[in-house]
Write a structure and sequence with these properties.
This protein is an alpha+beta fold. Helices cover 46% and strands 11% of the residues. It has helices at 8-15, 23-34, 85-108, 122-165, and strands at 40-43, 53-57, 62-67, 112-117. Strands 1-2-3-4 form a four-stranded mixed sheet, sandwiched between helices.
């Protein structure tokens, strides 16, 4: 690869670009924390996937990425440098492709990726993220309740099948109403009628 044409000023400016804890990230985290949400920062949501999210809500399985307008090619604010244009276009398009791949990998693992642009007001972004997290938590709780109900139904069926196989139906065991008038056999009702 040939050396890129650059100047000391450009190199100095680019070396000062933060990749973590940018102003917008910190502002978003403060807004989320103030709304009562708790999260991890700069974590890998899925083991084996070498992609780091800026904010991670583990129980809700939501990964938040704060994308810079320049680095991720914002549709509203992206600028395309004239110097080393091919390099920068390839770099930014590569970042976009990696973002799409990251979103797909997280989705395969049951996670939802939320993208926040650096130009979005932190308070508005925090509301959007909080709504997504609340919805995901509610969905997970509903699925857990459905699984619990399904397990209980299976257990009830298995217990009923076991009792029937053992000849311990409800009437035989004295637990249900008898055929004669609905009075259990133990309380004076006649099982045969």
């Amino acid at each position: 690869m040939e050396a890129l044409e650059s100047t000391p000023d450009v190199r100095a400016r680019m070396s000062r670009q933060k990749s973590k804890d940018t102003k917008i990230e910190v502002a978003l985290r403060k807004a989320l924390h103030a709304s009562g949400l708790r999260f991890r920062v700069h974590g890998r949501p899925v083991k084996g996937v070498r992609r780091e999210a800026d904010i991670v809500f583990g129980p809700a399985r939501v990964a938040v990425f704060v994308d810079g307008c320049f680095w991720h090619g914002c549709p509203e604010h992206a600028t395309w440098p004239r110097r080393n244009a091919e390099f920068w276009r390839a770099k930014i398009e590569g970042n976009r492709a990696r973002d799409r791949d990251t979103d797909a990998r997280l989705a395969e693992a049951g996670w939802l990726a939320v993208r926040v642009w650096e130009h979005e007001p932190p308070a508005e972004s925090a509301v959007r993220v909080a709504e997504v997290v609340a919805r995901r938590k509610a969905e997970r709780a509903a699925r857990a309740a459905a699984r619990t109900a399904a397990r209980a139904a299976v257990v009830r069926t298995a217990v009923g099948d076991a009792r029937t196989a053992a000849g311990e139906g409800p009437a035989a065991a004295g637990e249900g109403p008898s055929a004669a008038g609905g009075v259990p056999a133990e309380e004076g009702g006649s099982p045969a009628g």
